[in-house]
Amino acid sequence: MTTAAPMPVPFPFAAIAGQPQLRQALLLAAVDPALGGVLIEGPRGTAKTTAARALAELLPGAPFVTLPLGASLESLVGTLDLGQALAGHELKFAPGLLARAHGGVLYVDEINLLPDALIDSLLDAAASGVNVVERDGISHRHAARFVLVGTMNPEEGTLRPQLLDRFGLCVRLRNLQDAAERQAIVRARLAFDADPQGFRAAHAKEEAELAAALVRARALVADAAALPYGDAVHEAVGALCIAAGVDGLRADLVMLRSARALAAWEGAASITDDHVQRVAEAVLLHRRHPATEAAVAPPMASPAPHRNPGDASARHAGDSDWGAMPPEPVGIERVKPLRPLISTQQAAPKKA
Known about the structure:
42% helix, single chain
């Protein structure tokens, strides 16, 4: 009889270094899962999976559920036994991954490669906290409150704007260019691989403090009377969303909820304009209109190629397709003139 292999020990969240935006976005989504989850964009080897697994350990008794790429819609949302229901017996429901992830973290690697139907069901449940299964007029619903974490490599394709907008927060990771920072991260990883339990024991106090802070922040967010905010906060949110050219009002709502989650995490008495400013980029990154992208491009972005101001492509740079090739001159080659098949002189006269 073969024994099951032990589950790998997760890397402690407190020891993750070099990705402050990622840490903040994940913690805010854990404080208020109704934000709609976190989309993490970035190349391979930037601690996307490590951070998601570590987050689940901060939540008391939280499951960590992974959605494989080959999963079916039934395995995600669950199935109903219609035979039992039509026979007048009790409705039988077979839970799916959404039910298993309740109270924990649902992790989807390469979410951009999933069928749209699965992504729609994921985002619906993540935003509402309820999973509804319907089949032939029979429906069943159950609680599905979880932290959705999706990762993707933009080089392998992206999501439709309609799906991007439904993610609460987005973080775009890049390869680290600071040598000292890279060395510190590599040393920490090697130390963990050499002695996982010893490494975790060294960060146990910080882990316990993070877990306790999450419990306090969640309780504060659940209190409707806590964390008030005034007109100045509303004005700041509206101005940021208008400047980003977002569609609809979902960005405004998510930004307010994110600012409230950040205030709860820090134990503030109220939501301030500073809280709004610190969550704005994660809220707007995947919702910003392409025409405004250049105005807020990150410092590490490569400079735009030089264009002649009189060129039409320069006047419509924001509307041009990525990768479009400029027109090239083509030489004109003389060809031999064609001779008509029937000479006009030999054509038969028309009848009167």
